[in-house]
User: Fold this.
Amino acid sequence: MPKRISQKVRKPQEELLRFLRIETTGGILLLVAAVLAVIVANSPWGELYSDVQATYLGIDGILKMNVQHWASDFLLAFFFLVVGLELKRELVVGQLRDPKKAMLPVIAAAGGIIVPALVAVAITWGTDDVGKVWPVPVATDIAFALAVLAVCARSLPSSLRIFLLTLAIADDIGAIAMIAFLYSNIELWPLVAFVVTLALWIFLQRRRINSVWIYIPLGLLGWYFLHEAGVHATIAAVLFGLATRVKPDKGEDTEHTPCVKAEHALQPFSAGIAVPVFAFFSAGVAVNADTMQEFSSNNAALAVVAGLFFGKFVGVTGGAWLAAKFKLGSLSDDLKWTDISAVAILCGCGFTVALLIAELAYPGGDLAQQQELVKTGVLVGSTISAIVGGSILALRSRVVGRQKQANETEETAT
Assistant:
């Protein structure tokens, strides 16, 4: 009897974890959190929302940040750890293992970084924002883009998902590099301490030490050292993910390697708590007549919208076309350029990383109002990209679905 009771208790938990590992779940929760943040920020609870954001937590003299920074610097590290683990898996046993297969989406990702930045620079040229805003529209949100793709493109080939996933991973590499190089004020000794921590992590991995009770405190220590070094601490999570073993030993399944097990364990927390909480405390911008009037005439905010929607479309499509034109990569036989163009628009869903870069580029104080406007640009540009890209994909999916149904009917008749 006790055994049956324990199984009944575990079953709902297992179902919840399984639900949180579905790609569409993370994107939906992210969107819900962002919408809820905007609603609360513009409701009678708006002042309370701002007060909670600004509430400081921690220990004086050691580590003390406000709630918004805890969400972006600490909680979001779990999302970046999953990204690092996914990168390592793709580089060793996945799509990025074969450079030729990965080249077309990687070059498309490069175009999707360069062109939005150029669009933002062109729109803000001659203003104080030209050196600040250009990194904001270069990032693509993996979770949200894949969620829209999964909902709107059910009849389209699976190779389209692989293209978007590979592109988004390469895009993340670029965004991570920008965060590391643009927003770091490095202190030497904490950085040395972090390097020692990372080296110990690698040593333990090579010695096949798999106890999580060693890696959890080691990871937290590394996060703290890199934070104190002046480097955005989410970079620590990426590096720890890349330092985790994914190649199986003899007689070991890939599913049981530390990298895959850690990704499997962390994905529910990342999708269900870390990213939605970050979105909730970052996306809450005031939306009223005065704000929208200021937004409509603010070059930096408009640059973000144009960079995400127009820049991503031109950059990703153009990069993919150039790669195919010069035979640096090849488009899958079952894909059309209409599919690539729709996904290119969908890449304008910036959300998570774009909001983070907006906070880093405009770190509050005198820039707090401008940060709000730029964040509004991220939300507007991402929403337009999701609606337009998703609509085109849905139309394409219907056409392909009807063709498949017609072919099946014809085969049955013969």
Observations:
- The longest strand covers residues 56-59.
- The beta strands are 56-59, 63-66.
- The CA atoms of residues 132 and 361 lie 6 Å apart.
